[in-house]
Amino acid sequence: MVFIARGTGFWVGNVKMATTTDERILDVKELRTYFYTQEGEVKAVDGLSYHINKGESVGLVGESACGKSVSALSILRLIPYPPGIIVGGEIFFQGQDLLKASEADMRHIRGNRIAMIFQEPTTSLNPVLTVKRQISEALELHRGMDKEASLGETVRLLKLVGIPDAEQRAQDYPFQFSGGMQQRIMIAMALSCDPALLIADEPTTSVDVTVQAQLLEILAELRDRLGTAVLIITHNLGVVARYVDRVQVMYAGRLVETAPTDELYSDPKHPYTIGLLASVPRLDSERKKSLRIITGLPPNLARLPGGCAFHPRCEYAMDRCRVEVPTLEKIGEDHLRACFYDADKLHKY
Amino acid sequence: MSNATENLVEVQDLFMYFPVTAGIMQKRVADVKAVDGVSFFIKKGETLGLVGESGCGKTTTGRCILQLYDGMKGKIIFDGTELTELKREQMRRMRRYMQLIFQDPFASLDPRMTAGEIIGEPLKVHGLAKGQEYRDQVAELFRMVELEPFMADRYPHEFSGGQRQRIGIARALAVRPAFIVCDEPVSALDVSIQAQVIILLERLRDELNLTYLFIAHDLSVVRNISDRVAVMYLGRIVEITNADEIYSNPLHPYTIALLSAVPIPDPAVDRTRERIILAGDVPSPINPPRGCNFNPRCSQAMDICREETPELKNIGGEHWVACHLVK
After folding, report:
1. In degrees rounded to 5, what are phi and psi of residue A37?
2. Helix axis angle, A147-160 relative to A179-191, nearest 10°?
3. What is the ipTM of this complex?
4. For residue range A92-122, what is the model confidence (pLDDT) as tens digits?
5. Cα–Cα distances in Å, from B204 out to A236, B63, B96, B172?
6. Which of 34-53 (B) contact A at CB < 8 A?
7. Partner of B166 at 20 to 30 A CA spacing, among A89, A277, B116, B176?
8. Shortest distance, CA A289 to any CA of chain B (angstroms)
9. Among A83, A24, A74, residue whose Cα is nearest residue A46
């Protein structure tokens, strides 16, 4: 049976081919990406498993150096070697293990079937090429368009992301746009080939809160219209609350909890998630109510503690936690967590 | 604007324009109007939050209060003394009462000095302690920011971001100031560490009776720690009132939009809020719009908004707004 599914097709020349797909378009299994540095082996990603369904938007949340960006770069095989290397695991995208794919296959996938937008648009856009050139490059390469067709499509995409005076502005260079506009150009580039999956790595960290709101509204709108699956990588719990269907919390290179957004916020079941949510100031909380803090510091990935990486900071740590690494277990319909402590005995704040 | 004797800091008609020069002769061709007519006061023991997006002039305002720029216009009155009229040596001695905590814990510490040297330097500069007394005070400062005194011999790169920020705080406290400008002190830190540092700042403020100007772009952070909040846009204050009021009864369209843009980390609550998405980008402070500088992005702009700059008016209690729509 052949489905014509939006956002999940691929192109041969100018013709969009249909394809059957699983519910899952991305399935990461036990991914391990290590970096070999002067300090030793840094286990940036250390047994990460998760999946993304067709058309879903997922938030990958964690603090700096928890491995979230490295995991995204691993999916696209963009880890620089040396010093980084994907040492284990499987990454299935639309049924194909990307870690076994050839470089030629990966080139066909990058920018085409999986697209990525980065945190710093000023360093991700080529400063010496016009916006038109940068967007049409992907169109010509992956969709086989000629110059005229690609220009028309470029302008259409720029209008889609809300760039005013798109025809004239397409001839401009990135530096002639503000940070927020540059991010939109990146979004336009990423969506130009109708990817099945869009990875947004901290897309709003370097922009102001009002521009952040604009960008996320665009992403949400486009996702609804085009059916693209989106992976938003961020440390901002507020952004995640508003814009994703499911949240995955990472700590020290592993997933510690995952659940649908509403459930994660109303009923978190991992001590780290609970601590994180309690330590974030909120606009609607009682003013002057003290924030809870998680004692201690995030771990050094070159010197991880034995057992559960969170145990030195965990108020529930037991002997078992110091020696055994907990694996993800199902504790609800779509709710997984990696913890030995009895979920019902955790107190929330 | 208020009872003068209870104010520690008074800012009157502050202007700070940075020149834009061009050509071989470095001719001044334009100005970046970073601060474009700002007046406010901070009471003794109070924390005033100053919020706004990047480029609105909040950091420049903080630094102008500390007299860190040449070329500013206006008056800064600190504990009754007009700072702009002091001679260099007099101002230097005043500086021990007003300190600054920086945003970037990596750029604000000298990498070639040990933590102990960094924290103790102000004591030496102001001649406040020598010998054993100096060592005791440095150790005490470490403890005050919840660091161990034995870390005094380590260099900044051996500390984490949150710890470096604590060193910066200890350095500011070394001279026992009355007033501290906290310039986005937690923005560069991880989420779980931000709470630690905010709680530390609150505790120190209560124990040492400090007055803070707390600059931030994160409204949620500012709300918790501040008594009053001022909102800046493109070099001007658009609204200022006590912290409860600014969140329960914001009046300026920019304040309202800013608040609605901040997501609440609770999807059930966040869904019930109205969302106002501003059109366009923040204009350049080199060429701000005529009249009310927010008018191009304001959905309720009237003709007068494009002609006349609205004055900051008291509309009751401590609430001041600069908007033609508000009576």
Report:
1. -125, 180
2. 130
3. 0.77
4. 998 899 999 999 999 999 988 999 998 878 7
5. 27, 22, 17, 12
6. 53
7. A277
8. 8
9. A74
- The pair of structure tokens assigned to B268 is 């059930």
Chain A nearest CA to B221, separation (Å): 6
Residue A224's contacts (CB-CB under 8 Å, 6 or more residues apart) are none
For the stretch B163-197, pLDDT in tens is 999 999 999 999 999 999 999 998 888 878 888 89
| Nearest alpha carbon to residue B18 among B40, B34, B41 | B34
- A300 — contact with chain B (CB < 8 Å)? no
Instruction: Give pTM, 2 decimals.
Output: 0.83
CB atoms within 10 A of CB B74: 16
| Residue A343: both structure tokens together | 């979920």
Beta strand extents in chain B (DSSP E only): 7-22, 27-43, 47-51, 73-78, 81-82, 98-101, 179-183, 211-216, 228-233, 236-242, 313-314, 320-321
Contacts of A291 in chain B (CB under 8 A): 195, 198-199, 224
Output the DSSP codes for A267-299. Answer: S--SHHHHHHHHTS--TTSPTTPPPP---S-PP
Considering only CA atoms, which of A148, A14, A37 is closest in space to residue A84? A37
Report yes or no: A188 and A160 within 8 Å, Cβ to Cβ.
Answer: yes
